[in-house]
Structures are given as structure tokens and as C-alpha cells.
Design a protein that fits this description.
Aspartate Aminotransferase, domain 2, 36% helix, globular, coiled coil, PyrdxlP-dep_Trfase, PyrdxlP-dep_Trfase_major, dTDP-4-amino-4,6-dideoxygalactose transaminase
Length: 369
């Protein structure tokens, strides 16, 4: 079925029957051999733990700078850590941080750059800013399939979220590179020993159900997410950190990065051809070469985005807006004009590897005319 979330296929389930090895082997694809890395449940908990570790060293709450175009819900654990958050203005065209303005917003202790939708950010200005402010550079690679040139190779800390790109109930990686390797003990204390996640059988049954539903019955399956383009999911208290279950570990060991990359590229290319026929919507990253998390589209206006969103929802086809901006960003439209413009015009279509390329393109072509 054409779904928003990656579904389990029989090949991955068969491979997952084998027992998982230790954490070092499981997370090897998301770390360099010389790095210190840890398997955690969610990258948001890793960033919060890093802030707590830094607070212990500094004797005060750390100052964390983030791009204004960032999801608010994922920042709840960081807010609960006591860190002071500064949202940096971004370009309304690309979503990249306005580095000239950012330099005047300091000082910072941590600078977070986000490779949104898996597309690499120019990290030279980020490194220069971190050198001037003597702060840690954190690469948030939640949408990145695996490290690559320009993705997860420049910061002192890199955060990956395999559970967002593969059918996993939980599973993320925090990797300490370079001088930050000395922080491993501090990070371990901040992470603590979370309890084991609850039984994943409910999650497994839900994913297997969606995989078994033929696409012809998609209209009968309840849709997730906001029903209107303008709506955002309500903020809720962040879930407590947990340790990934044995099922999550075995599924993580069973992922096929090369095959997933190929399928995502094929699906994105097929949908891009559908979008190329439209006059009011275009690709947000027309020259992208990285493995995509979603196919990101830019509408000519908020009205166009809302209409396209509604038409796809009416057809029971997955579509998302992005992101639910932090309240402080929304409250400062002059400083955050770029982030707000992107929130009001960007649409996201699924391209994950459990989708069938021809079926995907055919379904969206019927609606996107």
C-alpha cells in the first residue's frame, strides 16, 4: 500500500530472524571507525543528553543555536534539559541559515545544523562560526540515510535516525567525532541507563497490517497527521528515553542501505517527473543528488499548497507539511520570515523503499494535474 511510513517487507523480516550482534556492529554504518558512538532510541534524546553533559562541564545551562526552520515537537527533550535555545533566521529559498545574521546572535555553546530532507548543508560557514564562538558543531542527520561526503563528516557530533527511514520501532545513533570523543564518559552519564522499551508487538502488527492492505483499499484506511495544510500537531510532553528492544535491534541489523538508497532515488525520480508537468509547484531542491528522505516540493503560494494538500488527502494519498515551527519562531515573523515562508509553501511526498515506483507515480499522476 502507498503509505507515509516505511513498511516491513518479507526480505527484511526474514533477515531479522537472525540474532543481532552488539551495538558496535549494529551502528557501524552510521559511524566512522575512530568515532565514539552510541545506540539510542531517538536523536532528540541524544541532543538533550549532550546539552546536559555540557551543562555539567560549564556549570550553567548551555546556549544552543538552531535554524528557525525546524520541527518544534522534536525539540521538547532539549527544552526540558534546561538549555537556552536561539533560533537563527534562514533563507526563504533554501532553508539554510543566514550566517551573517547568525554571527550577531551569539555567543553559543552548541550550533545545530540540520540536513533537512537529507540534503547537505554548506558547513564551511558553520565551522567558521563555531571557531569564532568556540562552540560545538552538531550535525542533525535525522533525514540522512547514512554518512556521506558533506553529511555527518564535519561536526564534532552527528545524530542519525534510522528509525525514520526504515521500519523500526526505535533506533538512533549519536556519534562523537574528533575532539568530542573525550566527551564519551560525560555523554554516557547524561544518557544514563533507560529502561527497555515496551513490547513492540502492537507496532509490528500495525506495520504488517498496512503492508497487507492492497492499494485499491487505501481509501478505507484512516489517515494519520493533520487533515489541513495549515494545521500542526499539538505539542505534547516528550516520551521518556528507552533502550531499543531486541526486535528493534534485529530489524536494524537487517536493513539494506544500498537497496534502500536505490529505491528512494527511483521513487523520487518518478515523482519528480509527475511534478515537472505542474505550473504552480516545483521541486524545492531541483539539483539534489543526495538520497532523499521525502520529495520536497515548493508551491507558488500558501493557497496553492493548501489546495494541493487537500486534493491529495481527499485521494487518501500521503502528503505532509513541514515543520511545526517553534512558537517563538511563529511569534517573530520579521526575524523568522524565511522559516514561515517555507512552512507555508512546502509539501512533502513519500519516497521510501517499500513503495513500488510505477504504482506510486501512477497514483500521484491522477491527482497532481
Amino acid at each position: 500500500m502507498i503509505s507515509q511510513l516505511p513498511l516491513l517487507d518479507q526480505g527484511m523480516l526474514a533477515r531479522a530472524r537472525r540474532p543481532a550482534f552488539g551495538d558496535a556492529s549494529l551502528i557501524a554504518p552510521w559511524r566512522r571507525p575512530e568515532d565514539e558512538a552510541r545506540l539510542i532510541d531517538r536523536s532528540a534524546h541524544g541532543l538533550a543528553a549532550l546539552a546536559r553533559a555540557l551543562a555539567e562541564r560549564l556549570g550553567r545551562s548551555p546556549r544552543v543555536a538552531l535554524p528557525g526552520w525546524i520541527g518544534s515537537q522534536a525539540l521538547e527533550p532539549l527544552r526540558h534539559s534546561g538549555a537556552g535555545l536561539t533560533y537563527l533566521p534562514v533563507s526563504a529559498k533554501t532553508g539554510q541559515i543566514d550566517w551573517e545574521v547568525a554571527d550577531r546572535c551569539g555567543p553559543f555553546d552548541i550550533l545545530v545544523v540540520v540536513h533537512t530532507f537529507g540534503q547537505p548543508v554548506d558547513l564551511e560557514p558553520a565551522r567558521a562560526l563555531c571557531a569564532r564562538h568556540e562552540c560545538l558543531l552538531v550535525e542533525q542527520c535525522d533525514h540522512v540515510l547514512a554518512p556521506a561526503a558533506g553529511l555527518g563528516d564535519a561536526g564534532e557530533v552527528a545524530l542519525f535516525s534510522p528509525h525514520l527511514l526504515f521500519p523500526l520501532p526505535e533506533g538512533a545513533v549519536i556519534s562523537l567525532t574528533g575532539a568530542a570523543r573525550d566527551w564519551a564518559d560525560d555523554l554516557d552519564r547524561a544518557l544514563g541507563r533507560p529502561p527497555l522499551a515496551e513490547d513492540d508487538r502492537v507496532w509490528l502488527k500495525r506495520r504488517l497490517f498496512h503492508d497487507a492492505v492492497p492499494d485499491s483499499l487505501r481509501r478505507f484506511v484512516p489517515q494519520s497527521g493533520p487533515s489541513r495544510f495549515e494545521a500542526d500537531p499539538p505539542l505534547s510532553d516528550p516520551p521518556a528515553p528507552i533502550s531499543p528492544t531486541d526486535l528493534a535491534r534485529r530489524l536494524l541489523a537487517a536493513v539494506d542501505l544500498a537497496e534502500e538508497a536505490r529505491r528512494r532515488r527511483d521513487n523520487a525520480e518518478a515523482l519528480a517527473k509527475v511534478v515537472a508537468r505542474l505550473k504552480d509547484v516545483r521541486l524545492l531542491f531541483p539539483h539534489a543528488t543526495a538520497v532523499p528522505y521525502r520529495l520536497a516540493l515548493r508551491a507558488d503560494s500558501a493557497q496553492v499548497a493548501a489546495a494541493r494538500f487537500a486534493a491529495l488527502r481527499e485521494a487518501h494519498l500521503p502528503v505532509e507539511s513541514w515543520p511545526d515551527l517553534p512558537p517563538r519562531v511563529v511569534a517573530d515573523p520579521n526575524h523568522a520570515a524565511g522559516a514561515i515562508a517555507l512552512r507555508n509553501t512546502v509539501l512533502l511526498l513519500p519516497v521510501h523503499g517499500s513503495l513500488l515506483t510505477d504504482e506510486l507515480a501512477r497514483a500521484y499522476r491522477r491527482v497532481l494535474k
